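Team,

Forwarding the record for the chain on the shared tracking sheet. I've put the sequence and predicted structure together so nobody has to dig through attachments.
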Amino acid sequence: MAILIKPIVTEKMTKITDKSSEARKKKDGSAPVNTTYGFYVDTNANKIQIKQAVEAKFGVTVESVNTINYAGKVKSRYTKRGLQVGKKSAYKKAYVTLKDGETIDFYANIN
């Protein structure tokens, strides 16, 4: 069972990551601390499993994990064939806060 499905790389998540870095900068102007990253995770995973998976995969120290469950929603639209009804899948997000000065580079393996 893969706990980490994929990282969240959107404009909104980038703003959250940058905001957490800037808000917690040390007074002496050194490197930013406590950076937050987002991941889509398995719906059955708990915070301890998510923490262990991030630490094992990226080699960083996780300070905290916050999770959010999103329920699947029913979507419908009107077409020539009538009302089409479907459902979006349920998913779970995890916001992972790293220890002082540690970062994750999602683009390191791109050639």
